Amino acid sequence: MGNLVALIPLVIFLAVALIISFVARRRSAGEGGFVKEYFIGNRTLGGFVLAMTTIATYGSVSSFVGGPGQAWMVGWGWVYMAVVQVTALVLLYGIVGKKLALVARKLDAVTVIDIVRARYGSNALANISAIIVVLFFAATMVAQFVGGAKLFEAVTGYSYLVGLVLFGAAVILFTTIGGFRGVAFTDALCGIIMLVGIFVLAGGILVAGGGYENIMDTIKANHPAMLEPFSGGSMPAGLYFTQWLLVGILTFVLPQSMVRCMGFKDTKALHGAMITGTVIIGLMMIGVTSLGVLSAGVLTGSLADYGASVDNIIPQAIAQTLPAWLAGVAIIGPIAASISTVSSLLIASSSAIIKDVYLHSCEQRGKQPSERGIARGSQLVTLVVGVIVFALAVVPPDVIWKINMFAFGGLETAFFWVMVCGLFWRRAGKLGALLSMAGGTVAYCACMAVGFKAFGLHQIVIGIVVAGALMVVGSLIEKRSAVEQKAVDAVFFPE
Protein backbone atom coordinates (compact mmCIF):
# COMPACT_ATOMS: atom_id res chain seq x y z
CA MET A 1 0.00 0.00 0.00
CA GLY A 2 1.38 3.43 -0.94
CA ASN A 3 2.07 6.28 1.45
CA LEU A 4 -0.41 9.06 0.67
CA VAL A 5 1.44 11.58 2.89
CA ALA A 6 4.58 11.20 0.75
CA LEU A 7 2.54 11.48 -2.45
CA ILE A 8 0.73 14.76 -1.70
CA PRO A 9 3.74 17.16 -2.06
CA LEU A 10 4.56 15.69 -5.48
CA VAL A 11 0.97 16.00 -6.71
CA ILE A 12 0.89 19.65 -5.58
CA PHE A 13 4.17 20.34 -7.40
CA LEU A 14 2.93 18.76 -10.63
CA ALA A 15 -0.31 20.76 -10.45
CA VAL A 16 1.63 24.01 -9.95
CA ALA A 17 3.92 23.16 -12.91
CA LEU A 18 0.91 22.56 -15.13
CA ILE A 19 -0.65 25.87 -14.10
CA ILE A 20 2.59 27.79 -14.74
CA SER A 21 2.95 26.19 -18.16
CA PHE A 22 -0.64 27.00 -19.10
CA VAL A 23 -0.42 30.61 -17.90
CA ALA A 24 2.93 31.18 -19.68
CA ARG A 25 1.45 29.89 -22.93
CA ARG A 26 -1.72 31.96 -22.65
CA ARG A 27 0.16 35.18 -21.89
CA SER A 28 2.47 34.67 -24.85
CA ALA A 29 -0.24 33.78 -27.36
CA GLY A 30 0.19 35.71 -30.59
CA GLU A 31 3.68 37.04 -29.84
CA GLY A 32 6.05 36.76 -32.79
CA GLY A 33 4.24 33.93 -34.56
CA PHE A 34 3.67 30.38 -33.38
CA VAL A 35 6.97 28.79 -34.47
CA LYS A 36 9.19 31.42 -32.90
CA GLU A 37 7.13 31.50 -29.71
CA TYR A 38 6.58 27.74 -29.32
CA PHE A 39 10.18 26.67 -30.03
CA ILE A 40 12.27 29.61 -28.76
CA GLY A 41 10.02 31.70 -26.49
CA ASN A 42 10.33 34.70 -28.83
CA ARG A 43 13.82 35.42 -27.41
CA THR A 44 12.52 37.03 -24.19
CA LEU A 45 14.15 35.04 -21.37
CA GLY A 46 15.63 37.07 -18.51
CA GLY A 47 18.85 36.19 -16.67
CA PHE A 48 17.39 34.19 -13.78
CA VAL A 49 14.99 32.12 -15.90
CA LEU A 50 17.75 31.55 -18.49
CA ALA A 51 20.12 30.30 -15.78
CA MET A 52 17.56 28.06 -14.12
CA THR A 53 16.21 26.52 -17.34
CA THR A 54 19.77 25.69 -18.47
CA ILE A 55 20.69 24.20 -15.09
CA ALA A 56 17.46 22.23 -14.86
CA THR A 57 18.01 20.82 -18.35
CA TYR A 58 21.66 19.99 -17.62
CA GLY A 59 20.92 18.51 -14.19
CA SER A 60 19.06 15.35 -15.14
CA VAL A 61 17.76 12.63 -12.83
CA SER A 62 21.08 10.80 -13.17
CA SER A 63 22.72 13.81 -11.50
CA PHE A 64 20.45 13.26 -8.50
CA VAL A 65 20.19 9.45 -8.49
CA GLY A 66 22.86 7.62 -10.51
CA GLY A 67 25.73 10.05 -9.85
CA PRO A 68 25.28 10.18 -6.05
CA GLY A 69 24.78 6.42 -6.11
CA GLN A 70 28.21 6.05 -7.70
CA ALA A 71 29.62 8.42 -5.08
CA TRP A 72 28.18 6.14 -2.35
CA MET A 73 30.21 3.31 -3.83
CA VAL A 74 33.37 5.14 -4.92
CA GLY A 75 33.79 7.96 -2.40
CA TRP A 76 35.06 11.54 -2.55
CA GLY A 77 36.88 10.86 -5.82
CA TRP A 78 33.51 10.93 -7.57
CA VAL A 79 32.83 14.33 -6.01
CA TYR A 80 36.17 15.68 -7.20
CA MET A 81 35.27 14.46 -10.67
CA ALA A 82 31.87 16.21 -10.44
CA VAL A 83 33.51 19.57 -9.62
CA VAL A 84 34.17 20.15 -13.34
CA GLN A 85 30.43 20.64 -13.84
CA VAL A 86 30.82 24.11 -12.31
CA THR A 87 32.39 25.18 -15.62
CA ALA A 88 29.37 24.15 -17.71
CA LEU A 89 27.58 27.50 -17.88
CA VAL A 90 30.76 29.57 -18.14
CA LEU A 91 31.80 27.55 -21.18
CA LEU A 92 28.29 27.61 -22.68
CA TYR A 93 27.58 31.31 -22.29
CA GLY A 94 31.19 32.45 -22.54
CA ILE A 95 32.27 30.54 -25.66
CA VAL A 96 29.21 30.12 -27.86
CA GLY A 97 26.45 32.08 -26.11
CA LYS A 98 26.84 35.59 -27.46
CA LYS A 99 27.95 34.67 -30.98
CA LEU A 100 25.24 32.03 -31.33
CA ALA A 101 22.64 34.57 -30.26
CA LEU A 102 23.90 37.19 -32.73
CA VAL A 103 23.95 34.70 -35.61
CA ALA A 104 20.50 33.40 -34.69
CA ARG A 105 19.05 36.90 -34.76
CA LYS A 106 20.66 37.66 -38.13
CA LEU A 107 19.23 34.47 -39.61
CA ASP A 108 16.00 34.59 -37.61
CA ALA A 109 16.96 31.05 -36.62
CA VAL A 110 14.78 29.13 -34.18
CA THR A 111 16.82 25.93 -33.69
CA VAL A 112 20.47 24.89 -33.55
CA ILE A 113 19.92 22.94 -36.76
CA ASP A 114 18.84 26.19 -38.45
CA ILE A 115 22.33 27.49 -37.64
CA VAL A 116 23.99 24.31 -38.94
CA ARG A 117 22.04 24.44 -42.23
CA ALA A 118 22.86 28.12 -42.80
CA ARG A 119 26.55 27.77 -41.91
CA TYR A 120 27.30 24.77 -44.12
CA GLY A 121 24.57 25.10 -46.77
CA SER A 122 23.70 21.43 -46.50
CA ASN A 123 20.24 19.93 -46.15
CA ALA A 124 21.82 16.49 -45.76
CA LEU A 125 23.81 17.69 -42.75
CA ALA A 126 20.71 19.31 -41.26
CA ASN A 127 18.68 16.12 -41.69
CA ILE A 128 21.42 13.97 -40.15
CA SER A 129 21.56 16.45 -37.26
CA ALA A 130 17.80 16.12 -36.74
CA ILE A 131 17.99 12.30 -36.72
CA ILE A 132 20.86 12.32 -34.21
CA VAL A 133 19.04 14.79 -31.97
CA VAL A 134 15.81 12.80 -31.90
CA LEU A 135 17.50 9.41 -31.33
CA PHE A 136 19.87 10.48 -28.55
CA PHE A 137 17.23 12.68 -26.95
CA ALA A 138 14.85 9.71 -26.91
CA ALA A 139 17.45 7.58 -25.09
CA THR A 140 17.97 10.34 -22.54
CA MET A 141 14.24 10.84 -22.00
CA VAL A 142 13.71 7.12 -21.38
CA ALA A 143 16.42 7.26 -18.70
CA GLN A 144 14.72 10.28 -17.08
CA PHE A 145 11.31 8.60 -16.99
CA VAL A 146 12.80 5.42 -15.53
CA GLY A 147 14.82 7.25 -12.89
CA GLY A 148 11.89 9.36 -11.75
CA ALA A 149 9.49 6.41 -11.60
CA LYS A 150 11.95 4.21 -9.67
CA LEU A 151 12.48 6.98 -7.15
CA PHE A 152 8.73 7.47 -6.82
CA GLU A 153 8.24 3.74 -6.17
CA ALA A 154 10.98 3.53 -3.54
CA VAL A 155 9.85 6.55 -1.53
CA THR A 156 6.06 6.55 -1.79
CA GLY A 157 5.41 2.80 -1.89
CA TYR A 158 3.20 3.14 -4.98
CA SER A 159 4.15 1.07 -8.01
CA TYR A 160 6.68 2.05 -10.67
CA LEU A 161 3.88 2.21 -13.25
CA VAL A 162 1.78 4.59 -11.12
CA GLY A 163 4.74 6.96 -10.82
CA LEU A 164 5.49 6.72 -14.52
CA VAL A 165 1.89 7.52 -15.44
CA LEU A 166 1.62 10.37 -12.93
CA PHE A 167 4.60 12.50 -13.83
CA GLY A 168 4.94 11.14 -17.37
CA ALA A 169 1.46 12.42 -18.21
CA ALA A 170 2.16 15.73 -16.45
CA VAL A 171 5.42 16.46 -18.27
CA ILE A 172 4.01 15.52 -21.68
CA LEU A 173 0.98 17.74 -21.10
CA PHE A 174 2.75 20.86 -19.88
CA THR A 175 5.40 20.58 -22.61
CA THR A 176 2.77 20.12 -25.31
CA ILE A 177 0.74 23.04 -23.99
CA GLY A 178 3.45 25.44 -22.87
CA GLY A 179 6.10 25.19 -25.56
CA PHE A 180 9.57 26.66 -24.98
CA ARG A 181 8.43 29.49 -22.72
CA GLY A 182 6.29 27.18 -20.59
CA VAL A 183 9.20 24.75 -20.34
CA ALA A 184 11.58 27.56 -19.34
CA PHE A 185 9.34 28.79 -16.52
CA THR A 186 8.60 25.29 -15.22
CA ASP A 187 12.35 24.57 -15.45
CA ALA A 188 12.97 27.58 -13.20
CA LEU A 189 10.50 26.13 -10.69
CA CYS A 190 12.17 22.73 -11.01
CA GLY A 191 15.60 24.24 -10.37
CA ILE A 192 14.41 25.89 -7.15
CA ILE A 193 12.78 22.65 -6.02
CA MET A 194 16.00 20.73 -6.74
CA LEU A 195 17.88 22.97 -4.31
CA VAL A 196 15.17 22.56 -1.68
CA GLY A 197 15.33 18.77 -2.09
CA ILE A 198 19.11 18.76 -1.63
CA PHE A 199 18.91 20.72 1.64
CA VAL A 200 16.08 18.55 2.97
CA LEU A 201 17.95 15.32 2.21
CA ALA A 202 21.18 16.74 3.65
CA GLY A 203 19.39 17.41 6.92
CA GLY A 204 17.93 13.90 6.97
CA ILE A 205 21.29 12.20 6.33
CA LEU A 206 23.16 14.28 8.91
CA VAL A 207 20.55 13.62 11.59
CA ALA A 208 20.29 9.90 10.81
CA GLY A 209 24.07 9.52 10.74
CA GLY A 210 24.66 11.36 14.02
CA GLY A 211 26.32 14.39 12.45
CA TYR A 212 29.06 14.98 9.88
CA GLU A 213 31.98 13.84 12.06
CA ASN A 214 30.26 10.63 13.04
CA ILE A 215 29.39 9.88 9.41
CA MET A 216 32.98 10.44 8.32
CA ASP A 217 34.25 8.19 11.14
CA THR A 218 31.86 5.47 9.98
CA ILE A 219 33.07 5.76 6.38
CA LYS A 220 36.72 5.75 7.51
CA ALA A 221 36.16 2.61 9.56
CA ASN A 222 34.24 0.70 6.88
CA HIS A 223 35.70 2.02 3.61
CA PRO A 224 38.87 4.10 4.16
CA ALA A 225 39.63 4.16 0.42
CA MET A 226 36.52 6.30 -0.10
CA LEU A 227 38.37 9.21 1.51
CA GLU A 228 41.22 9.12 -1.05
CA PRO A 229 41.17 11.10 -4.33
CA PHE A 230 41.80 7.94 -6.38
CA SER A 231 39.56 5.82 -4.14
CA GLY A 232 41.96 2.93 -3.87
CA GLY A 233 42.15 2.55 -7.65
CA SER A 234 38.42 3.01 -8.32
CA MET A 235 39.03 6.52 -9.71
CA PRO A 236 42.14 6.31 -11.95
CA ALA A 237 43.46 9.43 -13.66
CA GLY A 238 42.05 8.28 -17.00
CA LEU A 239 38.54 8.17 -15.56
CA TYR A 240 38.93 11.69 -14.22
CA PHE A 241 40.06 12.90 -17.64
CA THR A 242 37.26 11.32 -19.65
CA GLN A 243 34.53 12.21 -17.17
CA TRP A 244 35.74 15.81 -17.13
CA LEU A 245 35.34 15.80 -20.90
CA LEU A 246 31.99 14.00 -20.86
CA VAL A 247 30.12 15.88 -18.12
CA GLY A 248 32.05 19.13 -18.07
CA ILE A 249 34.16 20.58 -20.84
CA LEU A 250 32.23 19.25 -23.85
CA THR A 251 28.71 19.87 -22.53
CA PHE A 252 28.49 23.39 -23.95
CA VAL A 253 27.77 21.92 -27.40
CA LEU A 254 24.74 19.89 -26.29
CA PRO A 255 21.88 21.10 -28.52
CA GLN A 256 19.46 21.34 -25.58
CA SER A 257 21.88 23.77 -23.91
CA MET A 258 22.87 25.76 -27.01
CA VAL A 259 19.25 26.51 -27.89
CA ARG A 260 18.97 28.41 -24.59
CA CYS A 261 21.58 30.81 -25.95
CA MET A 262 19.14 31.68 -28.73
CA GLY A 263 16.30 32.55 -26.36
CA PHE A 264 17.65 35.22 -24.01
CA LYS A 265 16.51 38.82 -24.04
CA ASP A 266 19.78 40.79 -24.07
CA THR A 267 23.46 40.76 -23.10
CA LYS A 268 22.64 41.75 -19.53
CA ALA A 269 20.48 38.64 -19.20
CA LEU A 270 23.31 36.48 -20.59
CA HIS A 271 25.89 37.86 -18.14
CA GLY A 272 23.49 37.58 -15.23
CA ALA A 273 22.70 33.97 -16.13
CA MET A 274 26.41 33.13 -16.32
CA ILE A 275 27.11 34.42 -12.80
CA THR A 276 23.92 33.22 -11.12
CA GLY A 277 23.91 29.92 -12.91
CA THR A 278 27.54 29.08 -12.11
CA VAL A 279 26.97 29.61 -8.39
CA ILE A 280 23.78 27.56 -8.36
CA ILE A 281 25.06 24.70 -10.51
CA GLY A 282 28.15 24.43 -8.31
CA LEU A 283 26.06 24.27 -5.17
CA MET A 284 23.69 21.79 -6.76
CA MET A 285 26.06 19.33 -8.44
CA ILE A 286 28.77 19.27 -5.80
CA GLY A 287 26.16 19.22 -3.04
CA VAL A 288 24.08 16.32 -4.32
CA THR A 289 27.14 14.22 -5.19
CA SER A 290 28.56 14.83 -1.70
CA LEU A 291 25.30 13.57 -0.25
CA GLY A 292 25.94 10.30 -2.07
CA VAL A 293 29.22 9.92 -0.18
CA LEU A 294 27.67 10.91 3.16
CA SER A 295 24.86 8.40 2.68
CA ALA A 296 27.55 5.69 3.02
CA GLY A 297 27.61 6.60 6.71
CA VAL A 298 23.90 5.73 6.95
CA LEU A 299 23.43 2.98 4.36
CA THR A 300 26.24 0.72 5.55
CA GLY A 301 25.22 -2.52 3.85
CA SER A 302 26.51 -3.96 0.57
CA LEU A 303 25.15 -2.98 -2.83
CA ALA A 304 23.21 -6.26 -2.91
CA ASP A 305 21.30 -5.10 0.18
CA TYR A 306 19.93 -2.19 -1.86
CA GLY A 307 18.77 -4.02 -4.95
CA ALA A 308 22.25 -4.46 -6.50
CA SER A 309 21.99 -1.08 -8.30
CA VAL A 310 23.51 2.29 -7.44
CA ASP A 311 20.31 3.86 -8.75
CA ASN A 312 18.60 2.66 -5.55
CA ILE A 313 20.92 4.41 -3.09
CA ILE A 314 19.41 7.92 -3.03
CA PRO A 315 15.81 6.60 -2.99
CA GLN A 316 16.78 4.41 -0.03
CA ALA A 317 18.50 7.32 1.70
CA ILE A 318 15.38 9.44 1.33
CA ALA A 319 13.08 6.66 2.54
CA GLN A 320 15.25 5.72 5.52
CA THR A 321 16.33 9.14 6.81
CA LEU A 322 13.21 11.29 6.44
CA PRO A 323 9.65 11.17 7.78
CA ALA A 324 7.01 10.50 5.11
CA TRP A 325 5.97 14.11 4.49
CA LEU A 326 9.59 15.31 4.21
CA ALA A 327 10.43 12.35 1.99
CA GLY A 328 7.61 13.54 -0.25
CA VAL A 329 9.28 16.96 -0.41
CA ALA A 330 12.76 15.52 -1.00
CA ILE A 331 11.75 13.33 -3.95
CA ILE A 332 10.40 16.37 -5.76
CA GLY A 333 14.00 17.50 -6.38
CA PRO A 334 15.15 14.47 -8.41
CA ILE A 335 11.76 14.12 -10.07
CA ALA A 336 11.92 17.83 -10.97
CA ALA A 337 15.31 17.12 -12.56
CA SER A 338 13.72 14.33 -14.57
CA ILE A 339 10.77 16.47 -15.60
CA SER A 340 12.85 19.49 -16.60
CA THR A 341 15.21 17.42 -18.73
CA VAL A 342 12.37 15.53 -20.45
CA SER A 343 10.42 18.70 -21.17
CA SER A 344 13.46 20.44 -22.69
CA LEU A 345 14.41 17.44 -24.83
CA LEU A 346 10.81 16.91 -25.86
CA ILE A 347 10.39 20.45 -27.18
CA ALA A 348 13.79 20.22 -28.91
CA SER A 349 12.84 16.90 -30.53
CA SER A 350 9.58 18.41 -31.73
CA SER A 351 11.41 21.41 -33.21
CA ALA A 352 13.83 19.08 -35.03
CA ILE A 353 10.94 17.23 -36.66
CA ILE A 354 8.60 20.16 -37.39
CA LYS A 355 10.89 23.15 -37.93
CA ASP A 356 14.04 21.51 -39.25
CA VAL A 357 12.53 18.79 -41.44
CA TYR A 358 8.84 19.39 -42.21
CA LEU A 359 8.69 23.19 -42.56
CA HIS A 360 11.97 23.32 -44.46
CA SER A 361 10.65 20.67 -46.85
CA CYS A 362 7.48 22.74 -47.33
CA GLU A 363 9.58 25.82 -48.05
CA GLN A 364 11.58 23.99 -50.70
CA ARG A 365 8.36 22.85 -52.38
CA GLY A 366 6.91 26.35 -52.29
CA LYS A 367 4.17 25.46 -49.80
CA GLN A 368 3.21 27.51 -46.77
CA PRO A 369 1.22 25.65 -44.09
CA SER A 370 -1.25 27.74 -42.12
CA GLU A 371 -0.31 29.04 -38.69
CA ARG A 372 -3.08 26.95 -37.19
CA GLY A 373 -1.89 23.84 -38.99
CA ILE A 374 1.68 24.38 -37.77
CA ALA A 375 0.44 24.87 -34.22
CA ARG A 376 -1.62 21.69 -34.25
CA GLY A 377 1.14 19.70 -35.95
CA SER A 378 3.81 20.89 -33.48
CA GLN A 379 1.73 20.03 -30.46
CA LEU A 380 0.76 16.68 -31.96
CA VAL A 381 4.38 15.76 -32.65
CA THR A 382 5.37 16.78 -29.11
CA LEU A 383 2.58 14.61 -27.74
CA VAL A 384 3.41 11.61 -29.95
CA VAL A 385 7.15 11.69 -29.18
CA GLY A 386 6.35 11.94 -25.48
CA VAL A 387 3.98 8.97 -25.64
CA ILE A 388 6.55 6.85 -27.53
CA VAL A 389 9.24 7.59 -24.95
CA PHE A 390 6.76 6.89 -22.16
CA ALA A 391 5.95 3.50 -23.72
CA LEU A 392 9.65 2.61 -23.97
CA ALA A 393 10.06 3.38 -20.25
CA VAL A 394 7.30 0.96 -19.15
CA VAL A 395 9.89 -1.85 -19.07
CA PRO A 396 12.79 -0.08 -17.31
CA PRO A 397 16.45 -0.57 -18.31
CA ASP A 398 19.15 -0.75 -15.62
CA VAL A 399 21.78 1.84 -14.66
CA ILE A 400 20.22 5.04 -15.94
CA TRP A 401 23.36 7.13 -15.50
CA LYS A 402 25.14 5.00 -18.12
CA ILE A 403 22.30 5.58 -20.62
CA ASN A 404 22.50 9.31 -19.92
CA MET A 405 26.29 9.37 -20.38
CA PHE A 406 25.99 7.41 -23.64
CA ALA A 407 23.58 10.01 -25.00
CA PHE A 408 25.77 12.88 -23.77
CA GLY A 409 28.77 11.38 -25.56
CA GLY A 410 26.88 10.83 -28.81
CA LEU A 411 25.57 14.39 -28.95
CA GLU A 412 28.95 15.87 -28.00
CA THR A 413 30.72 13.84 -30.68
CA ALA A 414 28.18 14.85 -33.32
CA PHE A 415 28.05 18.58 -32.57
CA PHE A 416 31.36 19.61 -31.00
CA TRP A 417 33.47 20.24 -34.08
CA VAL A 418 30.51 21.11 -36.29
CA MET A 419 29.49 23.96 -33.97
CA VAL A 420 32.89 25.14 -32.72
CA CYS A 421 34.49 25.16 -36.17
CA GLY A 422 31.31 26.53 -37.73
CA LEU A 423 31.31 29.52 -35.40
CA PHE A 424 35.05 30.18 -35.16
CA TRP A 425 36.87 28.71 -38.21
CA ARG A 426 36.23 30.33 -41.59
CA ARG A 427 37.68 27.37 -43.50
CA ALA A 428 35.26 24.82 -42.00
CA GLY A 429 33.24 23.38 -44.87
CA LYS A 430 30.28 21.21 -45.72
CA LEU A 431 32.28 18.07 -46.50
CA GLY A 432 34.25 18.34 -43.26
CA ALA A 433 31.06 18.84 -41.24
CA LEU A 434 29.31 15.88 -42.86
CA LEU A 435 32.29 13.57 -42.31
CA SER A 436 32.78 14.82 -38.77
CA MET A 437 29.19 14.38 -37.65
CA ALA A 438 28.50 11.07 -39.41
CA GLY A 439 31.93 9.48 -39.04
CA GLY A 440 32.53 10.59 -35.47
CA THR A 441 29.10 9.44 -34.29
CA VAL A 442 29.42 6.05 -36.01
CA ALA A 443 32.90 5.55 -34.51
CA TYR A 444 31.65 6.46 -31.03
CA CYS A 445 28.58 4.22 -31.18
CA ALA A 446 30.52 1.29 -32.67
CA CYS A 447 33.17 1.49 -29.94
CA MET A 448 30.45 1.71 -27.28
CA ALA A 449 28.68 -1.32 -28.77
CA VAL A 450 31.75 -3.57 -28.74
CA GLY A 451 33.29 -2.11 -25.59
CA PHE A 452 36.49 -0.96 -27.33
CA LYS A 453 38.56 1.67 -25.52
CA ALA A 454 41.82 3.41 -26.39
CA PHE A 455 44.29 3.35 -23.48
CA GLY A 456 41.41 2.46 -21.16
CA LEU A 457 39.71 5.83 -21.78
CA HIS A 458 35.97 6.31 -22.34
CA GLN A 459 34.84 6.05 -25.97
CA ILE A 460 34.09 9.80 -26.06
CA VAL A 461 37.84 10.30 -26.66
CA ILE A 462 37.72 8.15 -29.79
CA GLY A 463 34.57 9.88 -31.01
CA ILE A 464 35.95 13.39 -30.53
CA VAL A 465 39.35 12.61 -32.07
CA VAL A 466 37.84 10.91 -35.13
CA ALA A 467 35.27 13.69 -35.58
CA GLY A 468 37.96 16.38 -35.28
CA ALA A 469 40.29 14.71 -37.76
CA LEU A 470 37.49 14.25 -40.30
CA MET A 471 36.42 17.89 -39.91
CA VAL A 472 39.93 19.16 -40.66
CA VAL A 473 40.64 16.78 -43.55
CA GLY A 474 37.23 17.24 -45.18
CA SER A 475 37.34 21.03 -44.88
CA LEU A 476 40.86 21.36 -46.25
CA ILE A 477 40.23 19.24 -49.35
CA GLU A 478 36.89 20.87 -50.16
CA LYS A 479 36.88 23.68 -52.69
CA ARG A 480 34.41 26.48 -52.05
CA SER A 481 33.50 29.32 -54.36
CA ALA A 482 34.17 32.93 -53.43
CA VAL A 483 30.42 33.61 -53.53
CA GLU A 484 29.70 30.84 -51.00
CA GLN A 485 32.50 32.04 -48.71
CA LYS A 486 31.29 35.62 -48.91
CA ALA A 487 27.75 34.59 -47.92
CA VAL A 488 29.08 32.68 -44.90
CA ASP A 489 31.40 35.53 -43.88
CA ALA A 490 28.57 38.06 -43.99
CA VAL A 491 26.69 36.25 -41.22
CA PHE A 492 29.29 34.32 -39.25
CA PHE A 493 32.53 36.31 -39.70
CA PRO A 494 31.70 39.98 -40.27
CA GLU A 495 34.64 42.35 -40.16
From TrEMBL:
One of the record's GO cellular component terms: plasma membrane
Show the GO MF annotations.
pantothenate transmembrane transporter activity; sodium ion transmembrane transporter activity
* GO BP, sorted A to Z: sodium ion export across plasma membrane
> Has UniProt tagged this entry with the keyword Protein biosynthesis?
no
UniProt keyword Transmembrane, yes or no: yes
Membrane-spanning residues = 6-24, 45-65, 77-96, 124-146, 158-180, 192-212, 232-254, 275-304, 324-354, 374-394, 406-425, 432-451, 457-477
Q: Where in the cell is it found?
A: Membrane
Report how it sits in the membrane. Multi-pass membrane protein
According to UniProt, the name of this protein is Sodium/pantothenate symporter
